[in-house]
Amino acid sequence: MKPKQLKIIDKDKLSLTWNNDTLSSISLKYLRDECPCAGCKGETILFKTFRPPKSTMQSPEMYKVKNIDVVGEYAIQIAWKDGHNTGIYTWEYLKNLEAGDNNNRQQKYDTLI
Questions:
Q1: How many Å apart are CA 24 and CA 18, to the nearest integer?
Q2: Which of 24, 31, 64, 66 has its CA 20 to 30 A from that of 47?
Q3: How far apart are CA 94 and CA 53, in angstroms?
Q4: How many CB atoms lie within 10 A of CB 97?
Q5: Is 82 left (phi over 0), alpha (psi -120 to 50) or beta?
């Protein structure tokens, strides 16, 4: 499943209309806080896992979208107004974020090996 329309609503939510006409809505704060990039969530290289420290610096710009680009046929990349732009959000990950946002839970990244 992939979205046929993306739009920002009320300056604080991403709305997705999927190709089966279902709707998803995810808060921009949650999208940014759950950014899947290595700098935000960590990565494993040559059997060593890097987990970055939680950011203590926050600015109002970090939750505002500058631009959204489609990546291939499988994802979007969000450029945030504070300059961060390395997270690639797959369609599957966006569906997981919708469920997590609705249940107010953080995504788990314990599977990094």
A1: 8
A2: 31
A3: 24
A4: 21
A5: alpha
pLDDT in tens, 80-96: 999 999 999 999 999 99
Q: In 3D, which of 66, 80, 71 has the Cα closest to residue 31?
A: 80
pLDDT exceeds 80 at position 7: yes
Cα 66 to Cα 84: distance, rounded to the nearest angstrom: 10
pTM for this prediction: 0.83
Q: Which residues of 23-36 are buried (b: 16+ CB within 10 A; e: fewer)?
A: ebebebebbbbbbb
Tokens of 47: 């059997």
Which strands, in side-by-side order, build the sheet including 65-71? 65-71, 75-80, 88-90
Give me 17's structure tokens: 């209309």
What count of other Cβ atoms lies within 10 Å of the Cβ of residue 76? 20
